[in-house]
Amino acid sequence: MIMEIKPKILTLVAFAGFLCLTSCIKDEEPNKECDIVNAWVQGDEYLQYFADANQMRKENIGATESDIVFTVRSLVSLPKQLPLSFDVTEGATIEPANGSMQDFTNGPVTYTLTSQDGQYQRQYRVSFVELSLPAYTFSFEHVSESEKAASGSYYHEFYEVGENGQRHDIWASGNPGAALTMNNAKPDAFPTMSMEDGYKGKGVCLKTISTGALGEWLKKPIAAGNLFLGKFVLEQVLVNALKATQMGIQIDRDPVRVTGYYKYRPGEKFTNVEMKEVPGRIDEPNIYAVLYKNKDKDGKEQYLYGDNVLSSPIIVKKAIVKSLPPTDEWTRFEMFFEGDEADPEMMARGEYNLALVFSSSKGGDDFEGAIGSTLCVDEVNVLYEK
């Protein structure tokens, strides 16, 4: 028998459903996120200050990034006021106001985001830099300490300073990834750190370390000390570790040679990804540089990563130090670029990136090497075509 449902009962059921629905909506917690997703300069009249329209936008900004850098033709000609717009996470507010005119000619402007629930805040530094390297000799004198990670650990970060005194965060390392497996560690425990007794002044010290039980379980038993031009994308560490190293920064001239000074001492026992010793194998460091095209055929940005930095078809030419014998004394190294010459018109448009990489273990990308291997580097000079 089919039971008849009277209109009054239907009304009560519908009203109860409505109450449940409104209750769910009412009980839904406000968003706790406060991130910038995309940033762009608003207005076609500002295109003249950039190499192309793509340079006016920064898309898919990583959740762990706090610096947003736009590259312009010249800081001298940059207007005193520019309108910058943002896509932010749902419900978040931003100060200074989204789309407001700001002066970027005197250095970075700090934007503060507040989450929808009002409980969380996050700051971003937005800056504009010229289409050129801030230095051609890297002395590694400029070092700061990172903010403490959730684990309580903090580490050294290297940066350069331009002629106008502006900070350029062009160097990155695997330290943020190492911090995930290190509790309350100080900078001298990390694979990449500053050293006081460089060839001249300070230098950089790269050391291959164990990542402990967690790293071994994840099949990432070691972390080679590394430093490279580019940025480290923390979100990729557990997904695809080699994609965490986004290598290369934009340059405005054609490199031909790289020189510098190094010291190196290999660790005692070379192990593979299974942490099994490989008898007779001695660890080696790695120093190399790559010039590559940073735009695809559609004009979209492209980068090199740890898994293709020496093999990608977008590479124009590369330089590799063939031999770095162990030495306790500062020893000069030199490497020449081999491959095609850069196209002058493409170079003028900013369509090339330079990747420069140092690592304490050549097989570090495959998590092979010797714990304790130590590479020290200082006074690196990139020479260009006149």
Q: What is the element layout, followed by pairings?
A:
Blueprint: H1 7-27, E1 36-41, E2 57-58, E3 67-72, E4 82-88, E5 93-95, E6 101-102, E7 109-114, E8 121-130, E9 137-138, E10 143-145, E11 156-158, E12 160-161, E13 167-168, E14 171-172, H2 175-178, E15 192-195, E16 203-207, E17 209-210, H3 212-217, E18 222-223, E19 226-232, E20 245-247, E21 249-250, E22 255-265, E23 270-271, E24 286-293, E25 315-320, E26 327-336, E27 338-339, H4 344-348, E28 352-359, E29 369-370, E30 374-384
Tell me about this structure.
The chain has 386 residues and is mainly β. The chain has four helices and 30 strands. The strands form eight sheets. Strands 14, 19, 20, 21, 24, 25, 27 and 28 form an eight-stranded antiparallel β-sheet that branches. Strands 9, 15, 16, 22, 26 and 30 form a six-stranded antiparallel β-sheet that branches. The longest helix has 21 residues, at 7-27. The model is unreliable at 1-26 (pLDDT under 50).
Query: So what's the overall shape?
Result: globular
Could you say what the CATH architecture of the largest domain is?
Sandwich
* Radius of gyration from the alpha-carbon trace, in angstroms: 25 Å
User: Which fold does the CATH topology of the largest domain refer to?
Assistant: Jelly Rolls
Strand content: 35-45%
CATH superfamily of the largest domain: BT2081, beta-jelly-roll domain
CATH class of the largest domain: Mainly Beta
Question: What's the overall average pLDDT, rounded?
Answer: 88
Q: How many domains in all?
A: 2
Poorly predicted regions are: 1-26
- Termini gap: 95 Å
Largest sheet composition: 8 strands, antiparallel
Number of strands: 30
> Fraction of residues in helices?
under 10%
Secondary-structure-derived class: mainly beta
Number of helical segments? Answer: 4
